Amino acid sequence: MMVVVAIASLAAGGAAMLGFVVATLFRWGSQRHADRLTRLSRVELAEMFLFVEPARFLRYNALALISLPPLAFVAAGGVVALIVAAVVLTAPVALYRRLRERRNRALQRQLADVAAAIATALRAGLGLAQALEQVVRHQPRPSAQEFALALREHRLGTPLEQALSDLARRVRSADYDMLVATLGIARELGGGLAEALDRLAVAVRRRVAMEDRIAALTAQGRLQGLIMAILPVLLGLVLYAMQPQAMQPLFETPLGWATLAVVAALEIGGWMLIRRIVAIRV
């Protein structure tokens, strides 16, 4: 009898300790996720001129996390619910990276026109600050937004060189670093700033044209990688629709879970390898 009581006490203590560890880890993970989303909405999205209230951002993400995985569990089971939960948790950061990539690509393509516009304004007799105002007025977003912010900082007392350096830091592009360096060197040492900007515009146009050509030549490889990544998933869904009883152990047994984990790892590894092969930097 004493042995049974001791075993029960140990089991209860172990369960309580496990519950405490799980609750602590859940609280820690929730706090880190909330801090990450708060920084994402306050800092990183704000740098892209996308202003979202942190409380609303957190509320929407929590609502999606509470509602979507249970629906997926009812509709397709626990594995799909875990996948949906992982997607909901990582979706804000993934979406931000996608938006950031698109914005940087747009800034890269607009840089040649920006440099040419500054050179034209300088030839017309305007100062550098006035030339940048012409960029704000006549160039499209997001270039106009970035230069408008730089000019606003300059009007508030920041030196123009520092404001342009902050612009390059936000954009994180080697070509914008070159533009800021060209403007700074020409202001300090003198020389043909308009001619230097024209040469920069020509170099950027050539680089963009080369990147477009490489993207066209590697499009087939990217498409093949996408098809290879999607085909096993589609095949599994078709087999599940045709023979659900034969496929059921894959989702309900430890061996099936291990098989799915191996397949997922191979899928992710193959996709990353193909992307690395077709990613050619200019």
Can you tell me about this structure?
The chain is mainly alpha-helical. The chain is 88% helix and 0% strand. The protein is elongated and about 85 Å long. The chain has twelve helices and no strands. The chain folds into three domains: 17-101, no CATH class; 103-216, Receptor-associated Protein (Up-down Bundle); 218-278.
What's the gyration radius in Å? 27 Å
Q: How big a fraction of the residues is strand?
A: under 5%
Number of beta strands:
0
Poorly predicted ranges (pLDDT <50, ≥5 residues)? Answer: none
- Outline: elongated
- Enumerate how many helices there are, as a single number: 12
Q: Keywords, please?
A:
3 domains, elongated, 282 residues, Receptor-associated Protein, single chain
Q: How would you briefly describe this protein structure?
A:
The protein is mainly α. The chain has helices spanning 2-47, 54-76, 78-123, 128-138, 143-155, 160-171, 174-189, 193-217, 219-242, 244-247, 249-252, 254-278.
SSE blueprint:
Layout: H1 2-47, H2 54-76, H3 78-123, H4 128-138, H5 143-155, H6 160-171, H7 174-189, H8 193-217, H9 219-242, H10 244-247, H11 249-252, H12 254-278
